[in-house]
Amino acid sequence: MSRRDEKIVEMIAEAKRLNLDISDDLITKVVIGLGPSVYNKDSESVACSQAKELETVRENFLKKKLGLTLDDAELTAAIKEVCEQLGSSNKSKKRVHIYALLAMKFDKTAVYDA
């Protein structure tokens, strides 16, 4: 099994453990889309309590990748909502899950169909 396949299996298992309603297919596509960043402990997680992290997700994912044009407050609120969905006791919120849940929330999963 390749390193990427191992990461996909790990992210699917964690999504199931957290009772997240994310398809295995979407998790696979998000892992592939994130590229090498999923192998770095620092970049594979999002620190939801840090404003700079939320800004990075908002600017680089929601605006650039998903093409959203809502105001910053709405986008940041959506990120915080997803962070809460992942649980306050979950100290390691994976970027894969956050991106997948945000893509689902904004009905933009098609960006991963290319």
Topology summary:
Elements: H1 3-17, H2 24-34, H3 51-65, H4 72-85, H5 95-105
Helix pairs in contact: 1-2, 2-5, 3-4, 4-5
Describe what this molecule looks like in 3D.
This protein has 114 residues and is mainly alpha-helical. It has one domain: Jann4075-like (Recoverin, domain 1, Orthogonal Bundle). 58% of the residues lie in helices and 0% in strands. α1 packs across α2, α3 crosses α4 and α4 crosses α5. The radius of gyration is 13 Å and the shape is globular. The two termini are 24 Å apart.
From the structure above, extract its key features.
single chain; globular; about 110 residues; mainly alpha
Quick rundown:
The protein has a single domain (3-112), classed as Recoverin, domain 1.
CATH homology superfamily name: Jann4075-like
Number of domains: 1
Taking all residues together, what is the mean pLDDT?
94
Low-pLDDT residue spans: none
Sheet of most strands: none
Helix content: 55-70%
> How does CATH name the architecture?
Orthogonal Bundle
Radius of gyration: 13 Å
